[in-house]
Amino acid sequence: MEKNETSSSVDDKPRPWQSYHTVYTNAKAGMEGVDKEKVQRIVYEMSKGSKYFENEEKKEALMREKVENMRARCAKLSAAELSHYQTLADRRILELEATRDLSRTWLHVDMDAFYAAVETLSNPSLKGKPMAVGGMSMISTANYEARRFGVRAAMPGFIARKLCPELIFVPTDFKKYIYYSDLTRKVFQRYDPNFVAASLDEAYLDITEACRERGVAGGEIAEELRTSVYEETGLTCSAGVGPNRLLAKVCSDINKPNGQFVLPNDRMAVMTFISSLPIRKIGGIGKVTEHILRDVFEIKTCEDMLQKSGLLYALFSRSSTDFFLSVGLGIGKSDAPEVRSRKSISSERTFSATDDEALLFQKLGKWPFDLQSCHSNYFAADIAEMLCNDMQKEGLSGRTLTLKLKTASFEVRSRAVTLQNYICSSEDILKYATKLLKAELPVSLRLIGLRVSHFNDTKDAAPSDPGQKTLNGFIVSGDVSRKVLSNQTTSLNLDVSDQHFVDKVEINFSVDSREDCGTRDPSGDNHMEDLDEHLCTSDNIMEVENNDGTLCNKVADKANIGDMVQHNREPQQTEILQSEEAGSPLQVQVERSSPSTASKVHPDTDATCSSKQEDQLFWVDGYKCSLCGIEMPPNFVDERQEHSDFHLAERLQKEESSVRSRTLMPRQRVDQKDLITSHSSRRKKHKPSPKEGKHIPIDMFFVKSNQNF
DNA sequence: TCTAATAGACATC
DNA sequence: TGGGGGATGTCTATTAGA
User: Fold this and answer.
1) Which residues are CB-contacts of A624 (< 8 A; sequence separation ≥ 6)?
2) Edge-to-edge strands, sheet with A260-262
3) Do the Cβ atoms of A172 and A166 come closer than 8 Å?
4) Is A512 helix (H, G, I), strand (E, B) or coil?
5) If you count Cβ atoms within 10 Å of the first and of the last residue's Cβ in chain A, which end, N or C, has fewer?
6) How much helix, strand and coil, in percent to the nearest 5, is found in chain A?
7) CA A105 to C1' C11, whole Å
8) Where are the alpha helices (DSSP H) in A439-538?
9) Of A531, A574, A536, the residue nearest A698 (C-alpha)
10) CB A178 within 8 A of CB A165
């Protein structure tokens, strides 16, 4: 619909790029004179046909659907209903108006093109030249010279280079940014010791007391602060002064760069300011919300929110409506923000899309013993380990693990499991993450992420520092090694902002909190150990494990037993396949096999129970399938078991087919093949959806499994 | 009916 | 030539279990 509207214009030439909505053409400071149509066309030309583009189109279609649904709901509202909702909305507006606080003065400081400015400071030859901080895949910041070409943050480097061929790319260097950020924060602290750092380059200051003590207006303080920042860092910043944080932030953007804007603490002034303010300028209203509000309700400015308050009240949730109406009134938070503790911690990596299952598992976590000599790539990435490191640095343990996946077609999925006990070790994270990932296979992925939430004791958890979270993300994307990350994070922990947080929260990173990490839950019961029992239901196997010292050996033993048993499974084949059809976990059957039998057979030497030696599966060098070459580490017990089962079923089918082929007609042979394929794909694929029902929590799954036996 | 868990979407820097 | 980030929080819808 919108496509049709925009695909032709005055001269009737098709302009398909006009319907490709990207953030890249949005107004941003320094982009006022940009030829938007040119930028849009180049971005479109470079994007079309790509998987990313296709996904964007899908998202666009979904958004249109949302708009249509909402329009339909609007149309269904009767006059009586509308009047009812208008009454409710009017009442709510009065309630919100009563909360308006004009007694405080907030200052929002935003450093101008911070990373780019710091880079120019340390390399003056960049001055006056278009420059971007980042790389070919993504840029973090562009200086104002580059912005004139349409280059901006969050734009892929290769598109930026197309827009501005002379663009200079500078890699991110967070040590520098943290150093300069610390300098700015030292200035901020002089005006508000409890300032709120929103990121490395942004902060909110309550300057009410500073203004009162010195008998000056907010604008004067802003001017003085900006001068101090420049004198002490050589960097410019912009500032906004207003009665609350929401307005102060909007104000700081008005005279960017190196400027400021003061909104008086006066209701009329606020309402006038708000009346023509585009909704997109408000923090919290992004591309999608703007689109919906504009296309469904014709809301373009903040004032329009009040005009359409009845409809908003009718169609949005209470919290969304409250937010929209507050925006319409220019009301924001003006009290000291409560210190929020961190709610989750995560780590994710983007890589070249692959459906190589071994590779995907490898991205998730490394094997718990040294295989470097076997396969150097196994240490290329290790998300579980990185997450574990980050958690340990902050003394966190949590009981919900979420696996995030981005498919080759840019579709984002998440799969979560909530455990009965808290985890923080990389082994535990890897164990559950592997289960979650396994259930998604086969799949081609370009990103894997892990997040831990539901922390052990949120009261004692570290407060979230937006500066740090940003830092983590960019350091990793900026080709900086984990070692650097570690150092920098440590350094940041000691910087001004964090002292500031520490002052406020009295965080306790005591040994106790670390002791809570791992497999022990607050009650003192060790559910994780229980779970291990469920995982490995053979008492005999447990004996072997309990007598064993290290985890590595435990895992390896488990795996070997699985491998060994595999070679003895031929007589049980019918039972195994039936069991699987019934939904029973195959691994349990296998692991219940007698270790004494297993111990007689070595995977590499077994030749006793196969009719055909060449069809036998064993793990070359302990990790590579002898039949198809797929690589799976020994601690991937279940995966290896399933893999073995697959080959076993395949072989049986082959043998059966070869017998039948002597008597079957060609068509019947095809049917047989279909049968195998469908069976095989059914066993591999399990992709639960909200509609289909919930994931069984993993620990519950194993408890149930155990009960079955 | 309330609550917790899950999944996806959206937003920010 | 191909190449489109990472960390975190909030909200909403849906579902299942207590």
Assistant:
1) A630, A631
2) A196-199, A202-206, A106-111, A237-242, A260-262
3) no
4) helix
5) N
6) 55, 10, 35
7) 29
8) 466-477, 482-493, 496-505, 511-515, 527-535
9) A531
10) no
Structure tokens at A628: 């198809």
Q: Is the peptide bond preceding residue A633 cis, with omega within 30 degrees of 0? A: no
> Of these residues, A5, A68, A166, A202, which one is catalytic?
A202
Residues 6+ apart with CB under 8 A from A46: A158, A159, A162
User: What is the per-residue pLDDT for A671?
Assistant: 32
pLDDT digits (tens, 9 = 90+) for A93-109: 999 999 999 999 999 99
CA of A637 to C1' of C5 (A): 33
**pLDDT by residue (tens digit) across A476-486?**
333 323 333 33
Question: Which strand B bases fall within 7 angstroms of a protein CB?
Answer: 4-13
Sheet holding A412-423, edge to edge: A344-354, A445-455, A398-407, A412-423
How many angstroms is C1' of B9 away from CA of A379?
33
How far CA A110 is from CA of A221, A280, A284, in Å, comes to 15, 18, 17
Q: Please state whether strand C lies within 7 Å of residue A693 at its CB atom.
A: yes
- DSSP tally for chain A: helices H, then strands E: 32, 14
Distance CA A107, CA A206 (A): 6
Query: Distance (Å) from CA A468 to C1' C9?
Result: 14
- From the alpha carbon of A687, which nucleotide's C1' atom is closest? B7
**Strand C proximal to A409 Cβ, under 7 A:** no
Residue ranges of domains in chain A, CATH in brackets:
2-76 (no CATH), 106-265 (3.30.70.270), 344-508 (3.30.1490.100), 528-708 (no CATH)
CA–CA distance, A335 with A352 (Å, rounded to integer) = 46
Angular region, A461: left φ>0, alpha ψ -120 to 50, beta rest: beta
d(CA A569, CA A93): 72
Cα–Cα distance for residue pair A210/A318, rounded to 1 Å = 37
How long is the CA A385 to C1' B4 vector, in angstroms?
Answer: 29
Q: Which two three-digit tokens encode residue A428?
A: 């535990």
Residue A217's φ and ψ, nearest 5 degrees, are -85, 165
- Assess whether A447 (CB) lies less than 7 A from strand C: yes
Residue found under tokens 């703007």: A290
pLDDT tens-place string over residues A112-143: 999 999 999 999 999 999 999 999 999 999 99
The verdict on whether A202 is a catalytic residue reads: yes
CA distances from A252 to A192, A206, A257, A490, A682 (A): 17, 14, 9, 31, 56
Before A585, cis peptide (omega within 30)? no
Of residues A609, A608, A650, the one with CA closest to residue A628: A650
Residue with tokens 């595999």: A566
Q: Which of A181, A167, A276, A260 is nearest to A222 (CA)?
A: A260
- Establish whether the CB of A402 is closer than 7 Å to any nucleic acid atom in strand C: no
| Parallel, antiparallel or unpaired: strands A168-170 and A131-134 | parallel
**Could you identify the residue written with the tokens 């692959």?**
A354
Judged on CB neighbours under 10 Å (0-12, 13-18, 19+), A414 is exposed
Residues 6+ apart with CB under 8 A from A608: A601
What pLDDT, on the 0 to 100 scale, is given for residue A647? 57
Given this model, what pLDDT does residue A33 score?
79
- d(C-alpha A648, C-alpha A76), whole Å: 59
- List of protein residues whose beta carbon is under 7 A from strand B: A 59, 62-63, 66, 154, 198-202, 249, 282-290, 400, 402, 412-418, 454, 466, 470, 473, 688-690, 694-695, 697
Those residues with Cβ within 8 angstroms of residue A593's Cβ, 6 or more apart along the chain or in another chain = A538, A561, A565, A568, A569
Top pLDDT among A250 and A595 is at A250
